[in-house]
Amino acid sequence: MPIRVSIVYSPGARQVFEEMLDLQDGATVRQAVQASGLLTAFPELDLSHAMVGVWGRKASASQVLRERDRIEIYRPLQVDPKVARRERFRKQGARTSGLFAHKRDGGKAGD
Description:
Layout: E1 2-12, E2 15-24, H1 29-36, H2 38-41, E3 51-54, E4 57-58, E5 70-74, H3 81-92
């Protein structure tokens, strides 16, 4: 009995590759990626080093798929989110963001 799954990959900002696939019951993530044509469309993608998930949860290439699963292939982060937040905060300044942005008249620090 065939199952229907979708596979999603975003090679860059505002670019999305999404395809619906009909696979045999018991198919794995690896088989779905190969059947999608994703590796030929994006030859720079190395599945052995890419993070893969099913519905936002980390998955291995050998994980067996179920009906209506959504396979997501994640690209590596360009910037560490913690570093980016620190840089934004540094640019904005301590007085214009967060708890200190709108101080009430007569209020204590942090109110």
